[in-house]
Amino acid sequence: MAREPMSVVDRGAACLLGGALGDALGAPVQYLGWADIQRDHGPEGVLEPPRPALVTDDTQLTLFTADGYLRAWVRGRNTGEWEPVEEVWHSYRRWLVTQQIAGPEEGATGLLGNERLYASRSPGLTCLRALAADEPPTPEAPHNESSGCNGVTRTAPAGFAPTADIAYDLGCRFAALTHGGTGGWVSGGAFALLIHLLAVRGRPLREAVDQVIGRVLRDDPYTANALNRAVLFAEEHRAMGFDSVRVDRLGSGWTGPEALAIAVHTVLVHAKGSEFVDALRAAVNHSGGSDATAALTGNILGAMHGTAALPRDWLAGLELVDVLAELGADLGRSVVGLDFDYARYE
C-alpha cells in the first residue's frame, strides 16, 4: 500500500535532509578512531554537528544524483526517452566540474549555477578517477574493483523510482558508475530498494529490511549476510537490554556493505522518529567511516518518519538546506505524480 502523496513528498525532503545531517555530524571525525573521537569530543563522543554544519562529497553527490534522476524523469515525461543512468553519469561529471574550478561560469544553471557547491570536501579518489573516464562503467563492465562506501552513500534518490525493481536496478547502476566491486554496487541497490519500500510503499521497517536481504542474496551473499548480521545484532541488543549500540561488530563502515549494515542496525535499534538524534550519535561514534554510516542512518530515518523527526536546531545550521529540501520534495512529487517546476531540470 503506497503512502499518501504529500506524505511521500515530505519523506523525500526528509530523506535528503536527514542524510545531510548525519553527514555533517560525522564529517569532523570521519578519519578518527574511537579513542581519538573521545579525546577530542569527550567520553560520549560527538553529540552535535558543528555550526555551520558542512557536508562532505557524499551529500554533494547525492544532490547530483537527485538532479540527474529528475532530469531523466522530466525528459521522459516530455519526450518518452528514459535514460536515468546516462543522465546521472552526466550529472556526476557536472559535479566533477565543481571540484576543478573556483565557482560557476557565466550562464551556468541548475546545481552548476550554485556557488555553494564549488567546495572540495575530501572527495574520494575512486570517484574522481572513475568520473574522469570517457565512458560510464556498468556492473557488467566495471572500471575498478572498489567496494568502498562512496557508492552507496549517494543512491538514496533512486529509491523514488516508480517501482521497487527499478529502484534496486538504478541504485546498483548509479553506484557502479564509480564502484565496480560487487559489494560496492549491490549495496547501492539495496539501499535504494530500502528507501523505496519505506518512503514510497510504507512498509514496516523489519519487513522492508527482510525484503532487501532476500533480493540482495541473489546478487551478493556477502552484502546479504552483512545485513542479516545487522538484524541479528539488533535482536540481541533488545533481548540483552544493552545501554549502547555496538556498531563496530559490523565493521568500520569503509565498504558499502559494512556502512549499510551499520546504518540498518542502528535504525533497527533506534527506530522511532523521536530517536533520530540518538540514532545519528550511535552511527557516528565509532572507528571508521563515521560520515557515511551516519548519513545512511539519517537517510533511512528521514524516509521513515518525514521532516517532523528532524531536529530543528540542527537544521538551522545545515549547509544547503534549501537545495536539499527542494530536490528531495521533487523526488517525492515525481514518484506520486504531483506537479513541480519541470523547468529546473530541462
TrEMBL record:
Cofactor info, note text: Binds 2 magnesium ions per subunit.
Sorted UniProt keywords: Hydrolase, Magnesium, Metal-binding
Cofactors, names only: Mg(2+)
Residues binding Mg(2+), per UniProt: 56-58, 291
Alphabetized InterPro entries for the sequence: ADP-ribosylglycohydrolase, Ribosyl_crysJ1, Ribosyl_crysJ1_sf
MF annotations from Gene Ontology: hydrolase activity; metal ion binding
Sequence intervals crossing the membrane: none
The keyword DNA damage is annotated on this UniProt entry: no
Family classification: Belongs to the ADP-ribosylglycohydrolase family.
Protein name in UniProt: ADP-ribosylglycohydrolase
Organism: Saccharothrix coeruleofusca
